[in-house]
Amino acid sequence: QQKVQQSPESLTVSEGAMASLNCTFSDGTSDNFRWYRQHSGKGLEMLVSIFSDGEKEEGRFTAHLNRASLHVSLHIREPQPSDSAVYLCAVSMNTNAYKVIFGKGTHLHVLP
Amino acid sequence: EAAVTQSPRSKVAVTGGKVTLSCHQTNNHDYMYWYRQDTGHGLRLIHYSYVADSTEKGDIPDGYKASRPSQENFSLILELASLSQTAVYFCASSVGTGGERLFFGHGTKLSVL
């Protein structure tokens, strides 16, 4: 069974400083990686998806994938207090994509 | 923007009672999902469906039933609610399972007392 672990559990940064979140996975054949954000009491919204090694940028959000290291990260440029939320890593395989495994999330707090 | 609507937004149920959570999507998506979110756990898949009148078991189906009467509607049914089913439940939809993005509802907070 795929294991997806996120670190840190909680992260506090100042407004404008880069925020970096990490996600490790156990199944090296995974090829579909997404980062979702969940504001308190809300549903999840997708921020960025990445399917091959390297980086993918969507606005202020950049995902980096290194499948050999079983690692995918999310970097948030110039975070705002409104970016304070839980960030969830989601991993799946395109051939069996209904089986999306989510990490437990990183609580990001952005201080003004 | 794709829309997934869940009802109710919150519910208090008694142990042993029947609970039905409803989900409606206007995305014209074939796939719909029910997830459960608990403190200390990531989202876990309960049931999913890829066509009306058919449902499939996810990773934690015990104690839950699902119903997909139409492409737009997907319900989660707890026939005999238990304390351990207190959680936040999310419905989601996607175009297919080729790794497409999931669109989520706002969640239903269920408290079983």
Question: Could you outline the blueprint of secondary structure elements for this entry?
Answer:
The complex is a heterodimer of chains A (112) and B (113).
Chain A: E1 4-7, E2 10-14, E3 19-25, E4 32-38, E5 44-50, E6 54-58, E7 61-66, E8 71-76, E9 85-92, E10 101-102, E11 106-111
Parallel strand pairs in A: 2-11
Antiparallel strand pairs in A: 1-3, 3-8, 4-5, 4-9, 6-7, 7-8, 9-10, 9-11
Chain B: E1 4-7, E2 10-13, E3 19-25, E4 31-37, E5 44-51, E6 54-57, E7 65-67, E8 73-78, E9 87-94, E10 103-104, E11 108-112
Parallel strand pairs in B: 2-11
Antiparallel strand pairs in B: 1-3, 3-8, 4-5, 4-9, 5-6, 7-8, 9-10, 9-11
Keywords:
heterodimer; A: 112 residues; mainly beta; five-stranded antiparallel β-sheet; B: 113 residues
Q: Report on the biggest sheet of chain A.
A: 6 strands, mixed
Q: How many separate helices of chain B?
A: 0
Number of helices of chain A: 0
Strand content of chain A: over 45%
**Any idea what the shape of chain A is?**
globular
Could you give the distance between the termini of chain A?
A: 40 Å
Question: In total, how many beta strands of chain A?
Answer: 11
The overall average pLDDT of chain B, rounded, is: 93
- List low-pLDDT spans of chain B: none
- Main structural class of chain B: mainly beta
> Can you summarize the main beta sheet of chain B?
7 strands, mixed
Task: Explain how this protein is built.
- The complex is a heterodimer of chains A (112) and B (113).
- Chain A is an all-beta fold and 112 residues long.
- In chain A, 0% of the residues lie in helices and 56% in strands.
- Chain A is built from no helices and eleven strands.
- Chain A has strands spanning 4-7, 10-14, 19-25, 32-38, 44-50, 54-58, 61-66, 71-76, 85-92, 101-102, 106-111.
- Chain A is globular, with a radius of gyration of 13 Å.
- The N and C termini of chain A lie far apart (40 Å).
- The mean pLDDT of chain A is 93.
- Chain B is built from no helices and eleven strands.
- In chain B, the strands form two sheets. In chain B, strands 2, 4, 5, 6, 9, 10 and 11 form a seven-stranded mixed β-sheet that branches. A four-stranded antiparallel β-sheet of chain B has the order 1-3-8-7, with no helix packed on it.
- The chains are: A mainly beta (112), B mainly beta (113).
- Chains A and B meet through strand 4, strand 5, strand 9 and strand 10 of A and strand 5 of B.
